[in-house]
Amino acid sequence: MDIYIVQPGDSVDSIAAMYGISPYTIIFDNQMIPPYALAIGQALLISDGTCEGTKTPIISNGYAYPYISNWVLEQTLPWLSELSVFSYGFTPDGMLIFPPVDDRWMVEKALLYRTRPILTLTPLNEQGQFNNALISALVYNPTAIENLIRQLIFVLQDVGYQGVDVDFEYIKAQDRNAFTAFVAQLADALQPLGYTVSVALAPKTSADQAGLLYEGKDYAALGAIADYVLLMTYEWGYKYGPNMAVAPLNMVRRVVDYAITEISPEKIMLGIPNYGYDWPLPFMQNVTVAVTIGNVEAIQIAIQNDAVIQFDETAQSPFFRYMQDDILHEVWFEDVRSIQAKFNLIKEYQLRGAGYWQIMRWWRANWLLLGDNFFML
């Protein structure tokens, strides 16, 4: 496969002729829509059209909500080693809370495609926000922990899940050791039964990194306990933050550089965002709110507004600006260049694989590129 950057005067037909392939292959692989316009600076995946969905030697994981489109899930599962269903919750006394939408169909579909279904456990409140008070209530209550683990085992066996992913965020610093002990107790209960236990980790760059997002996670201890971990290497650019790359490679690399000093690389999944953000400018803290967009959608926004897509070499991320209703917008997203840079990082550090947040939007070029990078390893 190749990556081609659209130049002024290019068309799908002229690019196809250059590579000696059908224009419909370019259109299909890059999810183009009529009249198949291009944006200057757009990165196109170029293939011969023969690649099909396949499992790869590295592990590929994708998070999804139970209301995912059946079509999107069926398109994605051939590429996934694991499907993490988001999410199960719990009460302070350890009562398991099921997803609001039935998840059994996702588990059945995953097993049909030989993809491991993973139950994601989160401390979310009724508004869908992470609640660290709920974490505190659980990890210091032995009865609640035993109750929760007992119910998890029942659901794993009843629904068909093959592991639990612990995604607890904003853990209080004083709860750090108690949280680690909870994960250890969960692993002691599940691993002998053949289930895996994984942990999502905030993107730390040092052991003593300050901040509520980081202080409650002990990389070394959790890495030793868990079967594997997911580095949440995204959200530098986020909905309420300043306009910047969602997963700038220079920052992602810093997280990996630290993580491998605490955790074996073969246990580390690199987090990859399957989305971007559109910010109205100028950015004002506590005022500006970005709009979450898909990576394919970002290209359409650029085309519709005659924007030229640029590429930040340090962040290894694409971006562009456009005017709408007299308001300047800035969009940062992922394309095949930025994804290739992340795949290169996985290969360089010999990590376990890639974990996508999330797979609710279908992005064909990403999966084709995954297969091209790792199928022959």
Give a written overview of the molecule:
The protein has 377 residues and is of the alpha/beta class. The protein has twelve helices and 16 strands. The strands form three sheets. It has an eight-stranded parallel beta barrel, surrounded by six helices. Helix 1 packs across helix 2, helix 9 (249-262) runs parallel beside helix 11 (336-349) and helix 11 runs parallel beside helix 12.
If strands are numbered along the chain, what order do they take across the biggest sheet? 3-4-6-7-8-9-10-16
- Write down how many β-strands occur, each being a DSSP E stretch of 2 or more residues: 16
Order of helices and strands: EHHEEHEEHEHHEHEHEHEEEHEEEHEH
Question: What gyration radius follows from the Cα positions, in whole Å?
Answer: 21 Å
Fraction of residues in helices?
Answer: 25-40%
Task: Please give the largest β-sheet.
Answer: 8 strands, parallel, barrel
Class based on secondary structure composition and strand pairing: alpha/beta
Distance separating the two termini: 15 Å
Mean model confidence by pLDDT: 96
Residue runs with pLDDT of under 50 for 5 or more positions: none
What best-fitting shape do the alpha-carbon axes yield?
Answer: globular
Beta-strand residue fraction: 15-25%
- Count of alpha/pi helices: 12
Oligomeric state of the chains in view: single chain
